[in-house]
Each structure stands twice: as C-alpha cells, then as structure tokens.
Amino acid sequence: MTERTLILVKPDGVARGLTGEILRRVEAKGYRIAALAQLEATTEQLAAHYAEHEGKPFYQPLVDFMLSGPVVAAILEGDRVIEGFRSLAGTTDPTTAAPGTIRGDLGRDWGEKVQKNLVHGSDSVESAEREIGIWFG
Ligand code: RTP
Ligand code: MG
Known about the structure:
By secondary structure, this protein is α+β, with helices and mostly antiparallel strands. The chain is built from seven helices and four strands.
C-alpha cells in the first residue's frame, strides 16, 4: 500500500555532510522524495515531535541536540515506506546497528549523553501524518 513517511536528517548528519549519502540510499531503494527542506527546528516543533518521550532521561539532551544545528526534513512516498525507511535506518543505537544500514554504516557513539544516530523516521501511519503536519504544516 502506498504510504508517506516523515524523515529527518538530524544535526549530526547535516554537520557531517551526509545528507546526500542518506538521500542517495533512499532514492536507490526506490522511494520518491515528495518534499525536502533544510531548516532550524524550533522548540515548539521538537516538543510536538518528541511528546512521547517527555519525562525520559534522554529527552532534554535530545531536544538540545536537535536544536544544535540545521536539520533536513523530507516526505517520502512508496509502498510500505514507513517500515522500509526504518529498515534502511537501522536500530536506534548506532554503535550496534547492523552494517548495511544508515546508522550501522555511518553512525557510532561519541561519548555523549544523547545517541546521535543521524536520522529519524516515522514509526506508524498515524505518526507519519502527525509529523508531516509538524514539519511541513
Ligand atoms: P527516531 O524516533 O529518531 O526515528 O528513532 P527511534 O524510533 O529508533 O528511537 P526512539 O526510541 O523513538 O528515540 C528517539 C531518539 O532519542 C534518542 N535516544 N537517545 N538512551 C539514549 O541515549 C537514547 N535513547 C533514545 C535517539 O536519538 C533516538 O533516535
Ligand atoms: Mg522513534
């Protein structure tokens, strides 16, 4: 079934010059980039985006990290793209994410409080529509 998902190249990915490599993998997989923008996240956008994590120990370091530089937001389209992009991204911890994935090939721990894992991808149809509203109004 054709779906849409919201992805972010997080500030570490943009700062390391990996936006092109990440989008290359998305396009090579066959997904369509329906919208693309580089922007500075606002605290309001991040509070909405990460509402499910409020109160967790990594919440504030995560928000501070996401405010530390520009992010690239994109809407991807394709059959089962929500699961498909999360599979391309790999598991959350970049040190142990499988080789072949974005996080596994390009990410690692840097001895910091927050896991800098390069990308975000929506985890359900409901989150995708909610997150598209947050980042693309
Ligand atoms: P995302 O939402 O960014 O696509 O990643 P995810 O589903 O794999 O991870 P999630 O559990 O939703 O956590 C959101 C982001 O918070 C940071 N995090 N750090 N213990 C930690 O240091 C920790 N746990 C989570 C990561 O940046 C993660 O992607
Ligand atoms: Mg998540």
